[in-house]
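Is this the right way to post structure tokens for a design question? Let me know if I should format differently. Anyway, here goes:
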């Protein structure tokens, strides 16, 4: 569904305000005055109601009390003093040896020196259980927010597998995937207590327990480590409790739902890593279908709450579906309905979002914000998340064609202030979700705006996209790029092109960027209030003018330039807009030089699907290209738009 706002869009002022979290949310917060021994004088604090008992420390700091006699039956030698353990919230009886819990005798663990620092005599870096692993595991079981600490025991590309009957059932690779698995295991099982039954340098037998009548699960964890970090962990259930299905099974009755199990095995459709951030882009249609736990599990919504910032037009069309989905997967939907129109990428929208983030108050790491809407909405939400508390995790779900083929890639977030994207940051989402089921309700104007960005990639990078659009473009627009193999292929190739060109340099440290094609003039056109161009429309106009300049510079043949103009006419794309003159392009050329560090660095097509850069486009070249353009639009008047087709006018949904 399209970018919100405008005369043809519902204006929603009744922002949903849901401040209560569900009863299943284990860390419910409420204000109170505590006058206990750790908070003398009745200092106001924050009370946590976690899975197991907690105590309040001075200044309202709630720390999990992991006590052997209350929950844990672990005898782990710790490298910290008793006072340090107490500061961390532990009650640690160093004299404790074997314990009986539930009728079982718990054996003392080997010392840290023997169990956690074993190395092979051969001199290589392979080691046994990392120091502090069991301690971190116990903390995570008692307080699921501490899963992050447990995950740091794994190598960045560490792997965890589940096994049954000698067969690997599921595997998760990378710290993010490992965290999702562990968080799901603990939250879905309702486990709150960990018993260490037996330990060797490379394996540990544990029991996980929760509140009655939750069954006690006996598990073996085998570890392969290097340089103190786990490279591979294999988890196997010893035997299921009587009357309970196994935790890990290839079919029904395992750890995750059938939908969730498939999602856990799935890999991102696209993934890049530039040395600093990893982009994960998932292709999953119907993410809000009832019972589909893909979003819940991929985003690791372990608190039971999804904070979603939704474009107001999307909310009007899909709000009830989102509510029904949330109920079906046992998630509380805390919705913030936000404007997302082209002219609402503003400081006012940004501060509105900051106020809403304060209201919904997401947990620092456990409640990523999901932005649902077009590119304007995802850009603005991403910037608000980048700034709120110096950065909170976020994910995006673009609902427009342009958002899926362009804004879904990259880590730039911004608002318009004094200039296009004048204030912004680089801030990567945890995940991006491509769900083309939203496209069938897009206005045709929004579909064509997306095609403007698709043509950019076709002209400068991938001739296969050009051929597909040339053969099927008119039909794909009518079908709103939904439901056909050709539509799926165009979307895939467009995202591929973006990732190939910008994936290795998400921070724009190099300024010769093929995907800056279509953006030499468009920034000025978008910023000019007379035109009211959508982003993809401005890019489309820019691509035509840039191609005609390439023709004047003998980089693009006349036959190729003619084919481009005719294809634009067939697709219903703008070639220019009323009021745009040769002087407009000259001004835009001068303005973009500032953005590109004093050089023009203009990418131009060197034939269809190839790119060259030029640092000089003189006035005479612009004037010749403009005369050529005017001759074409005179013969094809539908390619010269006016403000009646702008983003603030009534748009047909035919």
């Amino acid at each position: 569904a399209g970018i919100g706002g405008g005369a043809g869009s519902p204006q929603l002022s009744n922002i949903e305000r849901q401040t209560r979290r569900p009863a299943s949310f284990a860390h419910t917060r409420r204000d109170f005055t505590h006058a206990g021994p750790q908070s003398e004088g009745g200092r106001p604090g924050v009370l946590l109601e976690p899975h197991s008992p907690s105590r309040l420390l001075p200044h309202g700091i709630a720390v999990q009390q992991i006590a052997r006699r209350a929950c844990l039956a672990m005898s782990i030698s710790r490298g910290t003093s008793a006072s340090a353990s107490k500061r961390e919230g532990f009650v640690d009886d160093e004299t404790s040896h074997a314990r009986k819990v539930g009728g079982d005798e718990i054996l003392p663990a080997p010392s840290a020196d023997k169990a956690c620092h074993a190395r092979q005599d051969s001199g290589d870096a392979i080691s046994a259980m990392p120091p502090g692993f069991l301690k971190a595991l116990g903390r995570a079981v008692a307080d699921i927010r501490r899963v992050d600490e447990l995950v740091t025991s794994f190598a960045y590309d560490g792997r965890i597998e589940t096994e049954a009957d000698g067969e690997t059932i599921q595997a998760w690779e990378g710290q993010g995937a490992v965290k999702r698995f562990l968080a799901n295991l603990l939250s879905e099982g309702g486990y709150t207590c960990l018993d260490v039954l037996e330990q060797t340098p490379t394996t540990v037998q544990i029991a996980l327990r929760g509140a009655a009548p939750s069954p006690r699960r006996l598990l073996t964890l085998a570890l392969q480590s290097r340089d103190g970090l786990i490279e591979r962990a294999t988890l196997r259930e010893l035997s299921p409790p009587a009357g309970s299905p196994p935790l890990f099974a290839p079919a029904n009755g395992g750890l995750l739902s059938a939908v969730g199990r498939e999602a856990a095995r799935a890999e991102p459709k696209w993934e890049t890593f530039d040395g600093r951030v990893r982009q994960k882009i998932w292709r999953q249609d119907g993410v809000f279908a009832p019972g589909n736990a893909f979003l819940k599990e991929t985003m690791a919504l372990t608190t039971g709450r999804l904070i979603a910032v939704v474009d107001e037009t999307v909310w009007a069309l899909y709000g009830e579906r989102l509510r029904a989905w949330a109920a079906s997967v046992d998630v509380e939907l805390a919705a913030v309905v936000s404007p997302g129109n082209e002219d609402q990428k503003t400081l006012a929208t940004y501060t509105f979002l900051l106020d809403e983030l304060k209201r919904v108050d997401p947990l620092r790491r456990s409640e990523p914000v999901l932005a649902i809407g077009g590119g304007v909405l995802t850009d603005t939400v991403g910037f608000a998340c980048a700034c709120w508390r110096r950065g909170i995790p976020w994910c995006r779900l673009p609902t427009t064609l342009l958002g899926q083929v362009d804004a879904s890639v990259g880590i730039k977030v911004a608002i318009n202030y004094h200039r296009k994207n004048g204030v912004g940051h680089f801030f990567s989402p945890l995940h991006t979700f491509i769900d083309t089921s939203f496209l069938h309700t897009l206005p045709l104007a929004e579909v064509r705006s997306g095609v403007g960005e698709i043509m950019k990639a076709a002209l400068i990078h991938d001739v296969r996209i050009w051929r597909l659009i040339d053969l099927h473009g008119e039909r794909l627009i009518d079908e709103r790029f939904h439901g056909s193999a050709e539509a799926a292929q165009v979307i895939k190739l467009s995202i591929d092109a973006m990732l190939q060109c910008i994936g290795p340099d998400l921070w724009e440290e190099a300024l010769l960027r093929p995907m800056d094609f279509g953006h030499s003039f468009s920034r000025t056109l978008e910023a000019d209030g007379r035109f009211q161009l959508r982003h993809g429309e401005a890019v489309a106009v820019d691509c035509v003018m840039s191609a005609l300049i390439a023709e004047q510079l003998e980089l693009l043949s006349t036959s190729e330039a003619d084919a481009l103009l005719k294809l634009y006419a067939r697709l219903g794309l703008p070639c220019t807009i009323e009021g745009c003159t040769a002087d407009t392009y000259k001004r835009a050329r001068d303005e973009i030089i500032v953005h590109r560090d004093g050089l023009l660095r203009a990418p131009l097509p060197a034939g269809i699907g190839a790119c060259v850069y030029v640092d000089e486009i003189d006035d005479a070249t612009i004037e010749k290209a403009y005369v050529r353009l005017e001759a074409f639009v005179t013969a094809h008047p539908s390619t010269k738009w006016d403000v009646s087709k702008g983003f603030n006018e009534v748009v047909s949904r035919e």
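Format looks fine. Someone answered above. Worth noting: DSSP finds 19 helices and 28 strands in the chain. The mean pLDDT is 79.
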